[in-house]
Fold this sequence. Notes:
CATH architecture of the largest domain: 2-Layer Sandwich
Number of strands: 14
Bound molecules: 2,5-anhydro-1,6-di-O-phosphono-D-mannitol, magnesium ion
Strand content: 15-25%
Distance between the termini: 59 Å
Structural class: alpha+beta
Strand order of the largest sheet: 3-4-5-6-7-8-9
Helix content: 25-40%
Order of helices and strands: HHEEHEEEHEEEEEHEHEHEEH
Amino acid sequence: MPTKEFMNVRRFLYNEQRLSPKATGEFTTLLLDIILGCKKVCREVRQFGLSQYQHTTGAINVQDEEVHELDDLANDLLLDLLTKGGQTCGVVTEENKEIVGVPASFERGKYVVTIDPLDGFSNIGVNVNIGTIFSVRKKISEGEDSNLSDFLQPGRSQVCAGYVMYGPAMVLVFTIGRGVYEFTYSLGIDEFILSRENIRMPDLLPNKKGSFSANTGYWNLWDDKAKAVSNFFMEGGYSFRHIGSFIADFHRHLLQGGIFCYPANSKSPNGKLRLLYELAPLSFIAEQAGGLAIDGSRPILDLKPDSLHQRSPVYIGSRDAVIKAMEILAAPKR
Length: 334
Ligand code: AHM
Ligand code: MG
């Protein structure tokens, strides 16, 4: 068994594969494809200031947002690997309105994948951490191709969820339902090496304080309950830390403890973040690390999506901090 320093992600996945006697290696191949795709995306992100992909494409995506060339490129790079690698039968991404199927001449596999190719993209112009979020489920429908039912399974059906963050270091964080692991990219040897194992999200209340993050610019659009949650943490001595990239804010809370909130507001009655490719994956990681994620009253992982791009409010982070938020939200109006 190699020491932690020499545990690259490939070796780690092969070891995990051996723990499941029925494993065929398809899942390992899929995850390695996702990682390869993220490395390709990272190469483009790292040279953004010099890149030819600096502009908007002129198109408007399903989110009603202008499509940027780099977002589009990241989406294409990942879709190419995921729909032609033989392990999936459909992919849902933040950028495509419908399920992206496997082209006719390619093999179909038993997994469906959701991705947010570049989460926090609006931060790229100021060189702040962004990243790719992914989530894997098993197909439940009949036939070779996937359909809506495969994607509209609750978050608890995920077999894997993770993200790659393009920050000062490129880090890969994922869970396959047996704890949360972080791998850091080593440029010299072109490998992701295990840097943290069995990550536990620190508990905070009552003595230890962590960080609180939310876009308080929406204050005037929040209801009184959302304001009360925010007041509790800000007045309670939590550090206010908001990056504005979900995965970057989440990563801080995963390692140091804290809570990220994106409540509903009067202009976005369901909040902003999407269940399938943002909230379910990070909620799976949070729970696997001992944390929690709720929509205000219910665990995000229990929600059954009605549509591919469904949004939900979210409170995610250290378990006790999220439970405190839930209590404040449930308290009768005074
Ligand atoms: P994106 O996937 O289009 O980048 O949108 C998601 C991002 C999150 O990373 C971040 O938490 C949130 O949008 C910020 O939104 P807002 O500017 O409304 O605070
Ligand atoms: Mg996103």
